[in-house]
Amino acid sequence: MATYDIRIIGDPVLRQQARDVTDIDGALIRMVDDMIDTMYAAPGIGLAAPQIGVQKRLFVWDIGTGPNAMINPEIVESDGEWTFEEGCLSVPGLSWDIVRPKQVHVIGRDLEGNEISFEADEFEARMFQHELDHLAGVLLIERLDADTRKEALATLRDLRIGAEQSESPRDGLRLL
Is 74 annotated in the active site? Predict the structure, then answer.
């Protein structure tokens, strides 16, 4: 199977709202298979279509129970509050404590078009919320309080400047 490049913060596609999937066909199923390979190669536990530059409302995940995919997901209920350190494949190498609902009820469709439903708690609930944020064009940095977000943006700016300065003028390869 093939893998995709994962889009990183600063790529405008990550800020756009994804569109509903209207057809589940062979091309979509192949893309989902490749997304799963990309997620494992990253390595990650979830990957939303916008993270590979595709504006479709779907994501894949595996939190240790095998790969899954959900099409046109939505959270229909949430409850509680849980703080946990969260990272993102589109914001590589960085993580922050993020507050999210502790429990969620998510519905969507599987690759055969059947309705699926998950009641999730803590880590699994967080993963669902994180991937649904991607479908809405929201990155985890937007979930930070104002002061932490300011620090995070400064860190990202410093990392970007460091990467630009480490570019070799001889061959154009980045050292980071």
Answer: no
